[in-house]
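User: Could you check the structure of this?
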Amino acid sequence: MVSPTPAQFRAVHGDMDRWQAVDFEVYEHLVENQYVVRPRPRPEPGDRPPPPRGPDPARGPATPPA
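Assistant: Sure, the predicted structure tokens are below.
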């Protein structure tokens, strides 16, 4: 059985003002499951390492000027 999307759940269960606590729990899990972060793939032998990351321009230099 496939879980409904949050939009499908809202369409079936109507206005949130009439939901019970269990409805909110189920809806919360449906929303969380939409945003599951997948792990990065393992590098294969021979893959190049990612380029080094420089300082974040929004944060400025790592050390204050002398």
